[in-house]
Structure formats: structure tokens, C-alpha cells
């Protein structure tokens, strides 16, 4: 699916950049202009920005849901659910 008709950017390209940014620096902003910068593009009419934001939101929600796995605590052998208590 084409997300940006001005720059002919596909959904898969946006998702790949989001994954790359999250892997390189999880604290970096995931705003459309940051994603476009990685693609060496810039927003033109910017009508695609809400769609790019939705893709980011969906991917972050999936990442949080996928991250809700058992994680070991420092100094303990057992694991507890993420967000649980020790």
C-alpha cells in the first residue's frame, strides 16, 4: 500500500524505518519528519502524516503487547510478568 503519493513511499518502507529507528535508538522520536529523514525524503503536502502516525501507533502497540513476556529480575532466578511485583 502506498502511504505517501507525493514521494511514492510504501507502508512496508515506513515500517522498516520504524523498526530500524527502534533498534538503533529506542528513545528517538518516531514522528513523520524523522521517518522521512531516514528515507531521504521530506513531507510535501503532508496529507500522509496522519497515516504514518497511525502506522507508528500500531507498531508501538504491537511492540508493547509483544514485550509483555516474562523477564528476569536482577539478582533473582525466577521471572515475573512484566509490570508485576517482586
Description:
The structure is a single chain. This protein has one domain. It contains three helices and four strands. It has helices at residues 11-24, 32-38, 49-67, and strands at residues 2-4, 9-10, 70-72, 79-81. The chain has a two-stranded antiparallel ribbon with strand order 1-2. It is globular. It starts with a strand and ends in a 5-residue tail after the last strand. This is (2Fe-2S)-binding protein.
What is the tally of beta strands? Answer: 4
- Give the low-pLDDT segments: 69-74
Strand content: 5-15%
Task: Return Rg in Å.
Answer: 17 Å
Q: Within the largest sheet, what's the order of strands?
A: 1-2
> What can be said about the biggest beta sheet?
2 strands, antiparallel
Short structural description:
It comes from Acuticoccus sediminis. InterPro entries: BFD-like_2Fe2S-bd_dom_sf. By secondary structure, the protein is an alpha+beta fold.
Secondary-structure map:
Blueprint: E1 2-4, E2 9-10, H1 11-24, H2 32-38, H3 49-67, E3 70-72, E4 79-81
Organism: Acuticoccus sediminis
Protein name: (2Fe-2S)-binding protein
InterPro entries: BFD-like_2Fe2S-bd_dom_sf
Structure characteristics:
86 residues; alpha+beta; two-stranded antiparallel ribbon; two-stranded antiparallel sheet; 3 helices; 47% helix; 13% strand
Amino acid at each position: 500500500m502506498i502511504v505517501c503519493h507525493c514521494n511514492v513511499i510504501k507502508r512496508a518502507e515506513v515500517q522498516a524505518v520504524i523498526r530500524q529507528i527502534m533498534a538503533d535508538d529506542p528513545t528517538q522520536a518516531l514522528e513523520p519528519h524523522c521517518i522521512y529523514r531516514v528515507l531521504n525524503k521530506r513531507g510535501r503536502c503532508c496529507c500522509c502524516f496522519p497515516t504514518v502516525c497511525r502506522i507508528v501507533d500500531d507498531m508501538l502497540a504491537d511492540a508493547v503487547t509483544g514485550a509483555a513476556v516474562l523477564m528476569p529480575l536482577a539478582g533473582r532466578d525466577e521471572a515475573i510478568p512484566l509490570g508485576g511485583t517482586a
